[in-house]
């Protein structure tokens, strides 16, 4: 398993590198208060996000397969260039099953203050095989940051590298660790329309109060506000999901019956996870040659009663 060496001193964030048991590079970000984020180059998948007390904030199944081409059942798999299944692409696209590359000289980002964040820049460019499956020349630049306050941010830039125009959908399939699905509610989705994946993507309208959970849920909420809150009553903590360029929110919990069909999820583990994903699904993003899309996902945790 990986072991990271450097120790954050009182003044600067740390970026450290190691390899997992399959020899795949992982990056560990740490801030001066002791919070941390771990990312695998396999899929540029965030595997862990811990607060300064060392509490794990993301869910990872005890039965996950930590070996490509399987995406890890947990953390934050990046679903690109599509969410769901359509055409020749695999479920949720190929980006989460590819090895990304650390980028030392990314395209410049305005008004970014490196002194107050631990961050790593990763990039995915299509292989010849990818171009056969999805014939569009793109670059996906991803900056994963851990702020001095312990927020986890994913800043994505997808660029059309002089290919013909193409469209993509995207979702950051975020598995939040929760005390129990019966203790959780989501605020910020009230009165929104949603597509119900359990009912052939039929369109419905959410009622006027917070979303709670009594059974399997698999929905794409449309044109949501740029802040959504996930309250965990038992743990007295609230996840805040802030986003830009990501109009939709996916909410997914497989519940008992579906959980039993997932070989990489424990039968009872559905109780301790909830996916609430910043996404752009209903209206895929179209890029002309040379155009670039930017999306930001900013996750934080605040105490709540
Ligand atoms: O809406 C979320 C969803 O599409 C569910 O239908 C379920 O398939 C989930 O993603 C997990 O997908 P995965 O390919 O990671 O097993």
Shape call: globular
| Category by helix and strand content | mainly beta
What is the helix tally?
2
Name of the CATH first level? Mainly Beta
Nearest-integer average pLDDT: 93
Distance between the termini: 37 Å
- Cα-atom radius of gyration: 19 Å
Number of structural domains = 1
Q: What CATH architecture label applies?
A: Distorted Sandwich
Give the SSE map.
Blueprint: E1 14-19, E2 25-30, E3 36-40, E4 45-50, E5 78-79, E6 101-102, E7 117-124, H1 128-133, E8 138-147, E9 152-160, E10 166-172, E11 175-177, E12 184-187, E13 193-196, E14 202-205, E15 217-221, E16 227-232, E17 237-244, E18 248-253, H2 255-259, E19 273-287, E20 292-303
Antiparallel strand pairs: 1-2, 2-3, 3-4, 5-10, 6-7, 7-8, 8-9, 9-20, 10-19, 11-19, 12-16, 13-14, 13-15, 15-18, 16-17, 17-20, 18-19
Overview of the structural elements:
With 305 residues, this protein is mostly beta strands. It has one domain: Beta-galactosidase, Chain A, domain 5. The chain is 4% helix and 42% strand. The protein is built from 2 helices and 20 strands. It has helices at 128-133, 255-259; strands spanning 14-19, 25-30, 36-40, 45-50, 78-79, 101-102, 117-124, 138-147, 152-160, 166-172, 175-177, 184-187, 193-196, 202-205, 217-221, 227-232, 237-244, 248-253, 273-287, 292-303. Strands 5, 10, 11, 13, 14, 15, 18 and 19 form an 8-stranded antiparallel beta sheet that branches. A hairpin with a 4-residue loop joins strand 3 (36-40) and strand 4 (45-50). The N and C termini lie far apart (37 Å). The model has no long low-confidence stretch (mean pLDDT 93). 6-O-phosphono-beta-D-tagatofuranose binds next to strand 18.
């Amino acid at each position: 398993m990986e072991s990271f060496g450097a120790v954050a001193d009182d003044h600067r964030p740390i970026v450290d590198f190691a390899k997992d048991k399959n020899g795949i590079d992982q990056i560990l970000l740490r801030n001066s208060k002791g919070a941390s984020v771990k990312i695998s180059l396999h899929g540029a998948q965030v595997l862990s996000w811990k607060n300064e007390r060392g509490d794990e904030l993301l869910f990872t199944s005890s039965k996950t397969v930590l070996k490509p081409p399987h995406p890890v059942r947990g953390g934050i798999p990046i679903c690109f260039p599509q969410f769901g299944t359509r055409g020749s692409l695999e479920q949720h696209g190929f980006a989460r099953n590819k090895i990304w590359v650390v980028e030392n000289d990314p395209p410049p980002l305005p008004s970014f203050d490196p002194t107050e964040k631990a961050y790593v820049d990763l990039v995915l460019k299509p292989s010849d095989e990818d171009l056969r499956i999805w014939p569009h020349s793109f670059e996906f630049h991803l900056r994963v940051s851990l702020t001095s306050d312990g927020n986890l941010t994913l800043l994505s830039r997808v660029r059309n590298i002089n290919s013909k125009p193409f469209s993509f959908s995207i979702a950051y399939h975020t598995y939040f660790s929760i005390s129990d699905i019966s203790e959780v509610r989501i605020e910020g989705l009230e009165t929104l329309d949603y597509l119900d994946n359990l009912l052939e993507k039929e369109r419905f309208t959410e009622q006027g109060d917070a979303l709670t959970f009594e059974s399997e849920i698999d929905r794409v909420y449309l044109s949501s506000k740029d802040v959504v809150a996930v309250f965990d009553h038992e743990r007295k903590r609230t996840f805040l999901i802030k986003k830009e360029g990501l109009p939709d929110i996916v909410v997914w919990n497989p519940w008992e019956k579906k959980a039993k069909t997932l070989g990489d999820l424990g039968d009872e583990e559905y109780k301790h996870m909830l996916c609430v994903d910043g996404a752009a699904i209903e209206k895929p993003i179209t890029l002309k040659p040379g155009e670039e899309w930017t999306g930001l996902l900013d996750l934080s945790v605040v105490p709540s009663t």
